[in-house]
Each structure stands twice: as structure tokens, then as C-alpha cells.
Write a structure and sequence with these properties.
This protein is mainly alpha-helical. Helices cover about 75% and strands about 0% of the residues. A two-stranded antiparallel sheet has the order 1-2.
């Protein structure tokens, strides 16, 4: 009885320690979530505050009155609609191009063995380590010689090659998880290599394509440096560069700036909500084998 009671107390003590450790980890995770979410909360709340309240030294967690004047002023700012057009044209085209080229390249890397394959895969990783500022001057000089400055297609090419290495590497992780037997069975039934890829492999890559596309879109949508340097006309600037209109010699319109930032983030949030289920599936399945 004494031995059994001692074992019971030991088990209960372990359970209490585990429960205490679990609560500690949950509290730490909740604290990290609050720290990361607070800037987003403050951005939205500031966009809804009156302008005089934003400039006040007595800040509160919730505005005394909610107003949409900041959003109205932001939409009436010069070049707002042309900035939307520029961002959509550049980002959608570059992401679609990267997904098409990256998927074909990932299929080739994942299915075929060729000389320099491993070196090429290492290059895909290493190019991600290069800071954009280090490539700015060479890219500017090269695009200037090609007559691509202040042109949509010049920025599209830059964005495409920026997101292409990561897209290729990520989709390749899903290609190697698809059994070769499925592709071989389709080819036995009369499909060509590309026919088997289109009818069998591509549908199975949908979760991976969703995951890669959201990362590519976020990268392209949030890019500022190249859009600012390579574009020269105000009516061709993207939304991130357009936000500079709220800072003038007379000061910064923080209300309009916050409202503009909120509106800029909405398209990416909507796209994420549309593909979140496939993205979650893709992230877990792509991590199984690589």
C-alpha cells in the first residue's frame, strides 16, 4: 500500500509539473501573439481615429470617436487609382509568371537527374541570401541599357526573378512527394510526359502552388525599393510608393497614411483567406520529404 501510494503521488506530481509547463508555454505563446498583433491593431485603430486625436499626446487603446474620413481622404489622394492599377498589373503578372516557370523548373529538378542538379539547387538557396540593395545598381544599369526603366515590364522581370528561386524550391518539395508510379501509369495509358504532368501531377500540386503563390504575392506586393527606383512617373508608382504622398514639407498625414496602409493590406488578406485551406495542406505535405 505504501509503495502504491508513493507511485500515485509521483504520477500526480509529474502531471502537475506537465500541466504547469503547458500553462507556461501557453502564456508565452499568448504573449508573443499579442506582441505581434498589437501593431496591426494599432494600425487599424489609428486609421479610424480623427486626425487631431492621432496627433494628441494622450493616446488610448480605443478612439473616442470612429470616423471614415481618413479612408475618404486616402482614396481622393492623387494617383490612388493608377497606383492600384500598377500594383495589380506588376504583382499579378510577376506571380503568375513565377508560378508557371517555377512549377516547370521544380518538376524538372524533382523528376530528372542531370549534371549540375545539386549545384543548381544550392544556387537557388544562395541567391536568397543576397540583399536587394546589393543588386540594385547592377539591375538599374542593365535595365537602363535595355530601355526598361519606367516600364512595367522591367519591374515585372525584376519581381519575377526575385520570387522565382523560392517558388521553384518550394514546389520542388511537393513534386518529389508525388509517386512516380502515378505518372508512369498515365504514360502507359497513352499520355505523353507533358500530358501526364498536366492531367496527373498538376492537380496534385494544387496545395503546393497555393502555398508558394501566397508567399510570392506577399513578397511582390510589399516590395518598395525597386518600384521606387525603377519607376519615374507618379502615375506608374505602386501602392507602397504611393504612400509617400502623405508625407510633405508641411508634415505627415498620419490618418491618411494609416488608412492607405490598411487598404493596401486588404487584397493580400483576401487572397490568403481564399487559399488558406490549400495553403495549410501544402505546408504540411511539403515538409514530409525534400
Amino acid at each position: 500500500m505504501t509503495h502504491a501510494a508513493g507511485r500515485t503521488r509521483t504520477v500526480h506530481a509529474r502531471q502537475r509539473r506537465r500541466r504547469g509547463g503547458r500553462l507556461g508555454y501557453n502564456a508565452l505563446g499568448l504573449l508573443a501573439t499579442l506582441v505581434m498583433a498589437f501593431p496591426v491593431y494599432w494600425l487599424v485603430v489609428s486609421a479610424l481615429r480623427p486626425n487631431h486625436e492621432i496627433r494628441s499626446y494622450d493616446q488610448t487603446l480605443w478612439p473616442s470617436s470612429v470616423t471614415l474620413d481618413n479612408f475618404t481622404r486616402a482614396t481622393e489622394t492623387r494617383f490612388f487609382w493608377t497606383a492600384i492599377q500598377s500594383s495589380l498589373v506588376i504583382c499579378v503578372t510577376s506571380v503568375l509568371g513565377a508560378m508557371v516557370i517555377g512549377t516547370i523548373a521544380a518538376f524538372a529538378i524533382g523528376r530528372f537527374r542531370f549534371l549540375g542538379r545539386k549545384a543548381f539547387m544550392m544556387v537557388l538557396i544562395l541567391v536568397q541570401l543576397l540583399p536587394p540593395t546589393a543588386m540594385l545598381i547592377p539591375i538599374y544599369v542593365q535595365l537602363n541599357s535595355l530601355g526598361a526603366l519606367n516600364e512595367y515590364w522591367g519591374v515585372i522581370v525584376v519581381y519575377l526573378v526575385t520570387v522565382l528561386p523560392f517558388t521553384t524550391w518550394m514546389v520542388r518539395g511537393f513534386v518529389v512527394n508525388i509517386p512516380r508510379e502515378l505518372e508512369e501509369s498515365a504514360m502507359v495509358d497513352g499520355c505523353t510526359r507533358m500530358g501526364a504532368f498536366r492531367r496527373v501531377i498538376l492537380p496534385l500540386l494544387a496545395p503546393g502552388l497555393a502555398a508558394a503563390s501566397i508567399f510570392a504575392l506577399i513578397t511582390a506586393w510589399n516590395e518598395y525599393l525597386f518600384a521606387y527606383v525603377l519607376m519615374q512617373d507618379n502615375d506608374k508608382y505602386t501602392l507602397n510608393v504611393w504612400l509617400m504622398n502623405f508625407t510633405t514639407d508641411r508634415g505627415t498625414d498620419y490618418g491618411g497614411l494609416m488608412a492607405g496602409s490598411v487598404m493596401i493590406s486588404i487584397p493580400v488578406v483576401i487572397f490568403f483567406l481564399l487559399v488558406q485551406k490549400k495553403m495549410a495542406t501544402g505546408l504540411t505535405s511539403g515538409a514530409v520529404k525534400g
